Amino acid sequence: MSATTTAPITATPVRTTRRPSDRLRAWSTRAPLLPALVFMIVVTQLPFVATLVISFFDWNALYPKARHFTGFDNYQEVLTDADLRHSVWTTVLLTAAVVLLSLILGLALALLLDRKFRGRGVVRTLLIAPFLVVPVAAALLWKHVLYNPEYGLFNGLLHYVGGPQPDWISNNPLLAVEASLIWQWTPFMMLILLAGLQSRDNEQLEAARVDGANDWQIFRHLTLPHLRRYLELGALLGSIYIVQNFDAVFTITSGGLGTANLPYTVYQSFYQAHENGLASAAGVLVVIGSIIIATFALRVVSSLFREEASRA
Amino acid sequence: MSTVAVRPDSRRKGVGLGLVAWLVGILFFLPIAWMALTSFHSESDAATNPPSFGAALTLDGYREFFGAGGGASPWPALINSAVASLGSTILVLLLALPAAYALSIRPVKKWTDVLFFFLSTKMLPVVAGLLPIYLFAKNTDMLDNIWLLVILYTSMNLPIAVWMMQSFLAEVPVAVIEAAQIDGARLPTILARVVAPIALPGIAATSLICFIFSWNELLFARVLTGVVAETAPVFLTGFITSQGLFLAKVCAASLVVSLPVLAAGFAAQDKLVQGLSLGAVK
Fold first, then answer.
1. Best residue in A23, A33, A34 to probe B by mutation, most B CBs within 10 Å?
2. Of A47, A138, A195, which is closest to B129 when you measure between CB atoms?
3. Partner-chain residue, chosen from A1, A159, A254, that has the shortest CB–CB distance to B240
4. pLDDT digit string (tens) for A133-163?
5. From CA A86, how far away is CA B144, in angstroms rounded?
6. Among chain A residues, CA nearest to B219
7. Taking the CB of residue B115, how many other CB atoms lie within 10 A of it?
8. pTM of the predicted model as reported, rounded to 2 decimal places
9. In angstroms, rounded to a whole number, what is the distance separating the alpha carbons of residues B192 and B98?
10. Cβ A134–B255 below 8 Å, yes or no?
11. In degrees, to the nearest 5, what angle opens at C-alpha B168 toward C-alphas B164 and B173?
């Protein structure tokens, strides 16, 4: 790789007598990187530091004069408040259900699409479409057009077979949100897993087939181990996006009926309740949760990254 | 598929599985097809149970959405979304291209560490910085200003763009660049003649993916904009509570707002995975 070509320069141990031209050259290499780097630090890291600071203050925007330092009180309140604790649990449930189910469905679809058949390109396009509907529009579609108990499509179709006419959202609010998200995220998982399937070693598959392995054996002993990394990647990237989901919860249930997840709660506690300190503490907790997921995600991405680099 | 020995029963199984794939594809597409059909129905035909599949087609839903019935026109919101998405995508390209160059073609020391720093900022949830950004905007009179969204969407997409561009630029063979240098070509010539032709399709796909993410964004827009800088997704939130018979209008609105994303997504289809997986999958 290109990294190795710079290695000899860095290895020369002439640190004490480094000439100014070397330093100039190093800076000219770094210069193109700096605008992007500075931009990211200013726009993403500074606000987080501010959040961290605010989280230690008792600060309601409606009573700005009463602002004072409270140490870990906000965290204690967040962790003991029944509503907030419930929203942590909701976030976990929502993320786990959506990621797992769309991963399983995505795997099944990827396996189907990995075979050649007539119109494969069309089917692939049909399957990607749900992912390309604006999230708010998709949530509106599910809320009004599919779930509506009186004239929604689901009850309309049930009507034909003389089935019951349930009120989908009221009966199972969290499930209703999850179903719409699974519909949107299955294509994402399918795309990643399909890329994984298509990077399999064809010679190895042929050899296994010649040796008399059946489809299940090939799937169990060759495909699945090869797909492990891709499954992990899909699960982790999916988790990062769905932990942060706001659109579906906001649109379908407006955080009601026990579906408020952490992003929605943070939004509500400062946008509607003006509790800046509490919102910040909850925000910091979301970050800690994300860091735990992200550590694993970064490890998976970096191992795939190294694998690709070594192949290139 | 192997050309050697296709047994008849395995061929029949192949056709069967192809049919299953078609069935599932249609099932997944059904809500969108139904949304499209409903958008062309009259409001009374849209709200029947059982559904009226063969009802007469009309453009009333679209007329209503575009404000014919006296409602607010969606045009300002659509234009705001276009400004925020296109503006941030251009800014992303201006920042990401040089950065990717410094991470691939002429890499800085520890370039992988820098690359992973960019990735780690993507894992910081939006809510982590939302409140300080809101307070900052409020105190500097930047609330309800579309340019604030341009800045924020740039920060949201820059890590993805840097990762994707890095992987596209790394595909440019170093030997070709060195050969051009030996022939006496200067940097602008090398960028235009050697790097651009190889990297251009990737740059186009990156732009489309950044455009999609900006166009879709709701949380920042909802918190930081109001009447003036409202974006299309915020406009759509006006349909959250039912307003009598309004299904055809909702369907028309959802479809119109999603059209740019559907178009950009299908155009970038082949590079979509690479973008969404931050370049980890090729």
1. A33
2. A47
3. A254
4. 999 999 999 999 999 888 889 988 888 888 8
5. 33
6. A246
7. 25
8. 0.86
9. 14
10. no
11. 155
